[in-house]
Amino acid sequence: MDAALPADTTPPRLWRSVSLQLAGLSICALISELPWHRARRPDPVPPEPPKQEQRIRVIQIPKPPPVKPPEPRPAPPAQHAKAPQAQTPPRASSPPSAPPRPVAQAQARAPAPTPARQVIAADSTAVHGVHMRILVPRTPVDLAAHLRNSGGCMVVSRLTPEGAEVVSVLSLQGGFAVEQGGRPCNGVPRLLRDVHLNAMLGDPISRARASLAPDERAGDLVLQVLLTPQLHASAQSALHARFGAVSEEEMGRQAAQSGYELTCFAEPSGPVRCQ
Predict the structure, then answer these.
(1) Predicted confidence (pLDDT) per residue in 128-185, tens digit
(2) Paired residues of 172 in beta bridges
(3) What is the DSSP letter of 244?
(4) Mean pLDDT estimate for the chain
């Protein structure tokens, strides 16, 4: 018989080496899974925050007001050197003014004297010795129309032995007596004692009395109308037409014997008609 051939050892050795390698790999895998054996990874570096842009704010500071330099104080007179002055010839001394006299001061302080009021006739009652009646309108509207068309005016007067002292001068505006001041117009005076007419005109007599001083309020205040100066010319024409060209004494005697009385009418249209 043939000698026995040795058994083939290749397969067992191959398996053994493969097993050993697998075992080594398994051990390495187990060891790598252990926590203490893990390689420590470096901590992640946090990202840098974005840089903020720095902004610079410029603030304009207002300029302070300019400081005025202190005004130089004038040096005392003793410190100033006096400049040489040109010598001027001495002036003649004027005589001292006399002190004001007490009498002159009293006259300057005294109030101005009140101007004297104008005195006119109280009433017109006769022409050339012939008794005369004058009829004027008795309503404010007709009276104002006559005065406006004839140039007459009205006054408030105080009766005196010498005549009538004019206290206030009136004008009729809208049928109402208004004081206008100044001097009265030139005309023939006619005394009006109609209390109703005075009331319709706004009672100018009471208003004139209230404007006077207490010591001047006494006396008889009356209302007068000053008619146009042409009234005398109209009256003379009417007398000459009736009695002819005779003297004033003869005209008065004939009028008294016949009981004639001259009558004149102050019409609202302006003229004065006598008969």
Answers:
(1) 889 999 999 999 999 999 999 998 999 999 999 889 999 999 999 888 899 988 889 9
(2) 177
(3) -
(4) 78
Q: Give the CB-side neighbour count of residue 228, counting CA atoms within 13 A.
A: 23
pLDDT at 50 over 50: yes
Identity (one letter) of the amino acid at 266?
A
Q: Note the pLDDT tens digit of each residue in 206-230.
A: 999 998 888 888 889 999 999 988 8
Element (H or E) spanning 95, and its range?
A: none
- Extended beta strands in the chain, E state: 119-120, 126-127, 130-135, 153-160, 163-173, 176-179, 188-192, 221-227, 262-266, 272-274
What pTM was computed for the model?
Answer: 0.56
Angle between helices 248-258 and 230-243 in degrees, nearest 10: 70
Say if CB 164 and CB 121 are below 8 A apart: yes
Residues 147 and 138: their CA atoms lie apart, in Å, by 13
Name the maximum alpha-carbon separation found in the chain. 235
Q: Name the CA radius of gyration of the chain, rounded.
A: 68
- Residues ≥6 apart with Cβ < 8 Å to 16: none
The position carrying tokens 């309108």 is 137
